[in-house]
Amino acid sequence: MPEEWDVKLRRVFVVPAGKGHLTNAYGMSNAIALTDNLGLYLNDRQIEFVIAHEVAHVKLRHGRKHLLLVFTIFSITALSLFLLPLQTEHFRPLFQVVAIFGPLIALYYCSRRFEYSADRTAIEFTDDPEIAIRALAKLHQVLELPAASDAFTELFMTHPTFAHRVGAIVKNGQVPVERLTRILEDAGVALIAPHDVP
Length: 198
Hints:
By secondary structure, this protein is mostly helical. It has one domain (3-187). Helix content is 59%, strand content 7%. The relative contact order is 0.11.
């Protein structure tokens, strides 16, 4: 493991998938968690990418950054509403709508950026963008998620769509489009056009 990947984890949790057959993995401030059924759907190399992705969240301190963002964004919003001048009282309903949705959109945007950077860091570690695409394709199938969403829906998503994540991996990992087509065909996923990440 490279020196820059010297990440200290306090715990690795194995979480029962339960009756809902939840299949996922999570990165926390100093621990990661994996559902106990990942091995049913992913091979060892694909699980390695998933683990590297979650360790990347720890390495990049995404949990702490998220908490700091929540505190900062909601503090600024609360302070802005409190200090709202009386002469703008008739605009208060509009400000309240912005105060509710603005912070959520900002947090979801940052959350999606964290996912892109965790994918990129995990691929640097595994040195195999194709395995990343195959792992995401399999999880996409297992979780029965849509490949793409409209721009408005994605504003309220914590993770980028499958199409956007694959597009970023193709771009960063320099995977030829013909190769991507073959990977997705092999995985049994409906073909998508790779999207550039904004």
